Amino acid sequence: MSKKESAWTRFAAWVNGEHEPAESRLFSMGMGPRKERRPEITLPKREEKQRLHGFLSWYPVASAVIGVILVGILLATVLAMPSFGQVENPTNNEVPAHYLQHTREETGASNAVAGMILNYRGFDTFGESCVLFLAVSCVFILLLRDENNTSQKDLEQAQRREQRRKRRQDVILQEAARLLSPFILLFGAYMLLGGHHSPGGGFSGGAVLGGALILYASAFGQDAIRRFFNEKVYNTVRVIGLMLYAVLFGYYIFTGANGLENHIPLDYGGLILPIDIAVGLVVACTMYGFYAMFTRGEL
Amino acid sequence: MRPFVENFPFFSIFLVMVTGILLSVVRSGRLAMRISVAVALIAAVLSAQVLAYTVGGDLSFTYVMGKYAAPLGNEIKAGPLQAILALTFCVGMAISLLGGSRDLERDVLPRKQNLYFVMSNLTLASLLALTYTNDLFTGYVFIEISTIAACALVMARDTGPNMIATIRYLFLSLMGSGLFLIGVAILYSVTGHLLMPQIHDEFRLLAATGQYALPLTVSVGLITVGLGVKSAMFPFHLWLPDAHGSATTASSAILSGLVLKGYIVLMLTLMVRVFTLELVLKTRINDVLLVAGVLGMVMGSVRAIQQTHIKRMLAYSSVAQIGYIFMGFGLGTEVGVVASCLHILVHACSKPMLFCCAGKLGDAAGHHKNLKNLRGSAYRSPLAGVGFTVGALSMIGIPLLGGFTSKLYFASASLHTSDRTAVILLVLAVSTVLNALYYVPAVLAIWSPGSEEKLAGLPPMEPDWGFRVSTLVSIAAIFALGILYDPAINIIEAGIRLM
Amino acid sequence: MDLIQRILENRFSVTAVILFGIGFANLMLQYNLVKKVVGFNIMDSAVFLLLASQGYIEGAMPPIVAEGAVEATAYINPIPSGLVLTGIVVSVSVSAFSLALIQRIYHKYGTVDLRELVMRTEKEED
Amino acid sequence: MTLLEDILLLGLIVTAVAAPLCKRLMATVIVYMSFGLLMAVLWVLLESPDLAVTEAAVGVGVTTILFFLTLRRIHELKGTKDE
What we know:
The structure holds four protein chains of four kinds. By secondary structure, chain B is mainly α. Chain B has a domain at 284-499. Chain B contains 22 helices and two strands. The longest helix of chain B has 32 residues, at 160-191. Chain C has a single domain (2-56, 71-124), classed as Orthogonal Bundle (Helix Hairpins). Chain C has helices spanning 2-9, 11-29, 33-55, 78-109, 114-124. In chain C, helix 2 packs antiparallel against helix 3 (33-55) and helix 3 (33-55) packs antiparallel against helix 4 (78-109). The mean pLDDT of chain C is 86. Chain D is an all-alpha fold. Chain D has one domain (2-73). Chain D has helices at residues 2-21, 25-45, 49-73. In chain D, helix 1 (2-21) packs antiparallel against helix 2 (25-45). The chains are: A mainly alpha, B mainly alpha, C mainly alpha, D mainly alpha.
């Protein structure tokens, strides 16, 4: 009786949440050796460390074994795959042939890659631009200065660094930046605007534009950039770029899927050129945004 | 000229994406939240229209994302199953945001709240795209969107353990998407296509001739494992409890209830539409899924019993529920897949509510999340208590509630397999008992009259209309799935048939 | 002999797979978070190499179509290039995100070693 | 051409192995940068100029800048310790 009562009191205590449930005894047959509980705060530190060490020592071994097995399987796989560089491979079917033969009259671009990613598979590329947008937003959440991630000490330190930078300006860097920035900007714009008939396009052109901004900012300080490129302009340009893409391509999808006629002219790259510009704006903003967040935590 | 309703899947995806982009310039967090909820509800209405249209006509349709069809350009495909899943995702997103809004305002800095809603909207967009997509590479791009957005949702709370949970989650997810991508690369190089119907044709041809047998098997395996890693299949679930347990309430609800399902739905689409169940059976991948599912069911529950932190308990419970879904896939029969789909719906309805109620109960007990400290909290917030109880009972599998139906369907699906029936029935029984062993004490704890003096000092609860609405809607959904399950089953069966 | 012949023929994909293994191992095994990110980047590049090598045709030209020439096999396959282009951008975004996260973690804990970090959080948890 | 390709492929493997093995993170990043450059040259040999341009601008350029900025923030570069 007393045993039963104690069982009952134990159960009541368990229900009240005072005890850990007696799971280990209930299911010892089902789960083999008793598993250790999550350590309480009162647990001695050494034990905790040992447990972690246990975890950390089998983990590398296991993942190394998994890695070796994976590579072995993949090696066998690629050796069974179609040979390198042959014309009769399964990938060289009617789809790339169609792209290559019709990209000019269907998309207005002679660069088949640009035609493919921005027209035939433009939805993927819209998703990709959204990935960039998303990444820079995440970096904003993480590094934009706020009370969580910046203490007074950090601010003072940043100020000191800024003053030191102003005192000792790097002449070589500044002269090089003054000399190179226009050319880099020009080259970026060329790549951006010529994406439909030569290598380049929105992504690389935008990255080069962003690179020029980064060079300028690192030579003359972000205050110099902020004169024409502050947070407001930044947000506007970025959102306008993506919205331009969304609206243009949404219109294209809507008309295409419903069999309507779209009124997009095919000269000068057709749909490709405006979308390239939109993507370029987004990418340039993204790259500069990364830089600004990574150095100072503000735009 | 196609019927106008066929534009709705595309409209819903683009609407949510564009809203996400525009929200980055909205200053006020509260306004951003209202817009997000409204947009999720509009998308839900659009999906409901698609559902009515596809079920009414017993059809599924492809929608060209551009001017050039099938093997050339992107496509999406919508049928009854996709429509009902999209509807569930939209409603689930609205429920999660409404139910977690109070915690959100507290956990996320006001200046960055609009960015949180950017993330939530893009998560929803990626879920919709993963549901509707008919293109493997679109799948990859949106998997990445949902990975980044989900990580951002976890880290939005901005505390130390949270960051570490995020980075572990991120690295494991990246491993998963790397495996998925190399699987896609291998599949592309032997079939030469990226659109699912074309891959299916090539796949069947190659399987019939026996050419490239090894690359095909390996690519199916890699894609399955990659998606499995991202959706917390059993041995890869280690990141989940930390990430889901430490995030803010709305994030936990979104991640547990919805994001995991996005990857599972893509896997389901691939298995049914591309590889087909018979061919998957031949590669024996489904056995791996079955074992992982069964182990997940048992181990997830066992670990959940050991937890004292209510959110971590719910997170481990998610591991177990995901195990059910994989078990259904692993059976390799159509009935099993139907049961899994039903379980996806049930879990997507009840998990967000459980997390929101847990958050509310924690509030009621003075921001404690330990079961011990939650005693009596249900009296301070009765609706949260009722919601938690209903959700918990549904997870255990009490008749009249959604969880019961799906478990019943799992059991009946196991009868269709020849040699595994006994094992699966046994595991189902064991896992039901295990579920009861952690949900019942939690429910009893919140309803047990406890330390009044401790709770008396707390300020009175403010009325939270968003939470009330979201809880009532989810309770209604759970009862609907438990009592009127016939229409849902019919829709799912039609959806699988028309995949 | 046949095997070596085959390996040499497929040297691009074989290299890609080896790189994938290296990247994968680093992503899993390194405790230093920055090195993990490097490992991830190597892994992604390996997949891109595998993809792009599938589109190559011996002796073909870049897929920039000249006026009038319509022989499709004269150019390499543009599809893998497009996919890789997407992939590169995605992997840069992910790297930036994880590096930002690493900065915050360092700011908070003063270390980028995962072992230490895990130990710290275990202690910190309620 | 084949010889150059082989050398580049070997170089890729060597840099990929070496990058994470370096003691100092600075060296890791520099070796990784050379990995990216080798990759860019390889894209040219694979007749994909689009990829080469993008890899050089995005993959090598921006990623490396981000890596270095991170190293400065986590005090792995010389002279960036707190004063």
